[in-house]
Amino acid sequence: MQGKRGFENLDAYKLALLVVKEAYRVAKSLPAEEKYNLASQIRRAATSITLNIAEGYGRYHYLDSLRFYYIARSSLEEVLSAFILCNELGYTNGVLSQQRELYGNTIRALNGYIRYVHQQKQGYKEYGNSSIKEENAFYEINPAP
Fold first, then answer.
1. Helix crossing, 96-120 with 11-29: angle to 10°?
2. Structural domains in the chain, sorted by start
3. Are 66 and 86 in contact (CB under 8 A)?
4. What percentage of the chain's residues is helix, strand, coil (to nearest 5)?
5. What is the four-CA torsion angle of 106, 68, 17, 58, rounded to 10 degrees?
6. pLDDT tens digit string along 75-131?
7. What distance, in Å, lies between the first and last C-alpha atoms of the chain?
């Protein structure tokens, strides 16, 4: 089987998985009083990166895809902020430089993919330069017999 397609093969996604692993490692090492605050937030932000890359990949129109990639990029920024905060609070002394390097590699890969998607403009011919929207959608729910 030649090159498989899919979000799992994107460099940005592979690097985002490493960010998730690091975020979970950090969250696990935090003190108990941070369990429902910082630990929970860093896990949610990190998983948001991978989930939004996957969701963006599943969209047809490039503008819909880009919206999710931008959210993923914002979540990556949030994770970096959490890493900095953990370092400043003395929870993870000595690892911030490696975390910044991982962040840098991930943001470069994600920005590169964003540029690629923007250049390809998938769906532009069919739908123009605006996102696909359902207008006046009517959903009927039939009650169970």
1. 150
2. 7-127 (1.20.1440.60)
3. no
4. 70, 0, 30
5. -120
6. 999 999 999 999 999 999 889 999 999 999 999 999 999 999 999 887 777 766 665
7. 48
